[in-house]
Amino acid sequence: MIILGIILLVVGFIFSIPILWTLGIIVLVIGLVLLALGSMGRAVGGRRHYY
Predict the structure, then answer these.
(1) Residue 45 confidence class, pLDDT cut points 50, 70, 90
(2) CA angle, 38 as apex, 34 and 29 as ends, to 5°?
């Protein structure tokens, strides 16, 4: 999810599409939250780790 967020941010910036920029930020934040929860050992969605 983090990589997808970064890709959406870059594509939205290059092509000046604000909806892709916004979606990229949202997906990136969700990916970082899942990464933080998974690295603390808390199971999220039945998975221990999110890579």
Answers:
(1) low
(2) 20
